[in-house]
Amino acid sequence: MTAPKNIDLEISAHADQHASLRLWLRMLSCTTLIEDKIRQKLRDEFNTTLPRFDLLAQLEKNPQGLTMGELSKRMMISGGNVTAIVDQLEGEGTVVRQIGETDRRSYRVIMTPSGRQSFTRMAQVHEEWIVELFADLIEQDQSGLNDLLGKLKTSIYQNSNNAMAETE
Amino acid sequence: MTAPKNIDLEISAHADQHASLRLWLRMLSCTTLIEDKIRQKLRDEFNTTLPRFDLLAQLEKNPQGLTMGELSKRMMISGGNVTAIVDQLEGEGTVVRQIGETDRRSYRVIMTPSGRQSFTRMAQVHEEWIVELFADLIEQDQSGLNDLLGKLKTSIYQNSNNAMAETE
């Protein structure tokens, strides 16, 4: 089976475009394909969404809980969206809002024990999905890809800072 | 300068996680960083958004225009969101809704000549931004990354189809 055209961003790349742009469109296309598979599987197998999964992943790394502002920053989504996701998770008993001891107007979102249990299961299966999607790349390829993406990350920080310095 | 922690998804990767998962989080992190830079630059330099830019890119490849349904499919966003973006672009004179000749209830969205002109300029500058962000990767690295992402893309199609076949 070939890629459904409508989700293949790489077809945007004309032959006369710069190699870096074609490379970027290929990378964006791979990322979008994987995210799309993960979204679909989370819906089909756990009846949940990627933002809900991502929010739980944040709480798993922060057992002391996070404020709405911290969640909004870490997930790079608006406060309104965080509220909607937390409401859904609270409704299913996965998280609770814990009122602050010193400031009763403030609260942190923490995972419930049953939330932690179901997240652990989802995270394991999520990891298996990723392993499957990357399965045709031998260890050497995965390690090579990892190194090149490391270089790319350095390049992004380096060159976006240069560009920012120039405009300041 | 180091990465602002809140936008560095790679910190999600614990040392004990499978190499493929760490690789995926690094890839997602690079993609998010680049998209974030592009969003910021589109806003600062052209007072526009990534979805508006992406919609114009679709119309540039389809000079005969696209229906709202086609735009929704190609951009993988809801019909309501497409309507909102088309309204904004129509307001600035970049696109028009063209009523169908045979079916007056249907219409296609097409770029205006001034829309095409401003998109061409934006696309050139967008390409320069990408070239800058990838600048520290020598040609051999870019070509190697391109090949490995090609393998990954094949792997995604291969293994997501296998997984689907198993559950059918």
Which features characterize this protein?
homodimer; 168 residues; two-stranded antiparallel sheet; 6 helices; 2 strands; 66% helix; disordered N terminus
Explained architecture:
The structure is a homodimer of 168-residue chains. The first copy, chain A, has 6 helices and 2 strands, in the order ααααββαα. With 168 residues, chain A is mainly α. The first copy, chain A, has a two-stranded antiparallel sheet with strand order 1-2. In chain A, β1 (95-99) and β2 (107-111) form a beta hairpin. The longest helix of chain A is centred in the last third of the chain and has 29 residues, at 139-167. Chain A is globular. Chains A and B meet through α1, α5 and α6 of A and α1, α5 and α6 of B.
Give the gist of this structure.
With 168 residues, the first copy, chain A, is mostly helical. The first copy, chain A, is built from six helices and two strands; from the N terminus they run ααααββαα. Chain A has helices at residues 19-46, 50-61, 68-75, 79-91, 113-133, 139-167; strands spanning 95-99, 107-111.
Mean pLDDT of chain A comes to 88
Q: What radius of gyration of chain A results from the CA coordinates?
A: 20 Å
Oligomeric form of this entry?
homodimer
Estimated helix fraction of chain A: 55-70%
- Class based on secondary structure composition and strand pairing of chain A: mainly alpha
* Total number of strands of chain A: 2
> What's the helix count of chain A?
6
In the sheet with the most strands of chain A, the strands line up as 1-2
Please state the overall shape of chain A, judged from the principal axes of the Cα atoms: globular
- Strand-residue fraction of chain A? 5-15%
What sequence of helices (H) and strands (E) makes up the elements of chain A? HHHHEEHH
Biggest interface and which pair forms it?
A: A-B, 65 and 65 residues
End-to-end gap of chain A: 50 Å
Uncertain segments of chain A are: 1-7
